[in-house]
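Write out structure tokens for Response regulator receiver domain-containing protein.
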Amino acid sequence: MIPVLCINDNSINLFVQKRLLLQSGITDSVITAADGQEALDYYAKLKKTPGTNYPRLVLLDIHMPKVDGWEFLDKFSELYLPSFDETSVIINSFTVDENEINKAKSYPVIVDFVTSQLTADYFRKLALPGMQDKVV
């Protein structure tokens, strides 16, 4: 099973996402990061150890202190996506801002922009790995 990375500055959201992912059965390994910088540091370590099983799915909050979701996406796309090219990102943000949804469409790595609570059933329906069919 593939690991999944959850990036969110809200510890309760991280706890709920981790629990839902494990209940869904799509993974048995959930890595968490409290902000975009922590996630970028994680990828920097992964890049130094080629062949490591890396997350093919990232759940990303947009509004975070330090390095927010957009900054993470920009740096990840530039520095790490070539090495981790099977990565798919789902933005999970409760803000419904049409500009952000449109901005999300400009990132090929984003497969969905979810503005509601995620469910285990939602994760079970994902076509992993690769997720060729974009939802956005």
